Automatic annotation (TrEMBL):
The lineage of its organism: Eukaryota, Metazoa, Ecdysozoa, Arthropoda, Hexapoda. This is Uncharacterized protein LOC108044273. It comes from the Eukaryota. It comes from Drosophila rhopaloa (Fruit fly). Keywords: Signal. Residues 1-17 form the signal peptide. InterPro entries: Uncharacterised_DM11_DROME. The gene is LOC108044273.
């Protein structure tokens, strides 16, 4: 299995308060979904990252500058988002208890109580524009103040993480008549969980 030095820190605050890091498998970070919805498109069909600066230190990704949306949807669409963690067990991917779904991602993009705000959107510097255009207006630039990305999970019942995991992220656009569009964005971030010795 290909591993890179790129690590995400997964902090799990269960009953033992264990910390985990995830060694990413794919140097490109964002892999296509193995079982994406029919018609779905990948990360790079929705986001242009050529002006985004990504630098990895031992266990942290430093991020700054610009992400540009290029997803082919309409400004009036509603975006439904889902994040789910899967575990590889005996040759099969199985769902875990960790999942977040939101029917209106754009209205909650700067909600301080959401994990994506704590990890990511709080560092967006042009908030007014991103709040208005979100993912639905092609060419919108999301500007970032420099920050360090650590993927954090708050474990609910102190389960231990072991082996191979993947986070499956989907964004689905729903039109004004409440009909989902076919070109759902689906991508996976795969890696191996390792406990950090305290
Ligand atoms: C990001 O966007 C800002 C505003 O348009 C621009 O000044 C800056 O040069 C861009 N950064 C990169 C790396 O393209
Ligand atoms: C966030 O959570 C706190 C505490 O539960 C609550 O008082 C606050 O209204 C919430 N904020 C939003 C934007 O939902």
């Amino acid at each position: 299995m290909l591993k890179t030095l790129l690590l995400l820190v997964v902090l799990v605050s269960g009953s033992w308060g264990a910390d985990y890091e995830l060694l990413l498998e794919d140097p490109d970070i964002f892999a296509p979904c193995t079982e994406g919805p029919p018609g779905s498109v990948g990360f790079h069909d929705a986001f242009n990252i050529k002006d985004l600066v990504l630098n990895q230190d031992a266990d942290i990704i430093h991020i700054s500058e610009n992400l540009t949306t290029i997803w082919d949807v309409q400004p009036t669409d509603r975006i439904s988002a889902r994040f789910a963690l899967w575990h590889y067990n005996r040759g099969n991917w199985e769902p875990t208890l960790f999942s977040i779904a939101t029917p209106d991602f754009c209205s909650a993009i700067f909600d301080e109580n959401q994990s994506w705000f704590k990890q990511w959107t709080r560092y967006i510097s042009n908030r007014d524009e991103v709040q208005e255009k979100c993912l639905t207006t092609r060419g919108t630039v999301w500007m970032h103040n420099p920050f360090d990305l650590k993927l954090r999970l708050n474990n609910i019942r102190g389960a231990t993480l072991q082996g191979r995991y993947k986070a499956v992220v989907t964004f689905e656009a729903v039109d004004e008549r409440d009909v989902p569009r076919k070109n759902t964005v689906c991508f996976e971030i795969r890696g191996e969980a390792e406990k950090i010795k305290n």
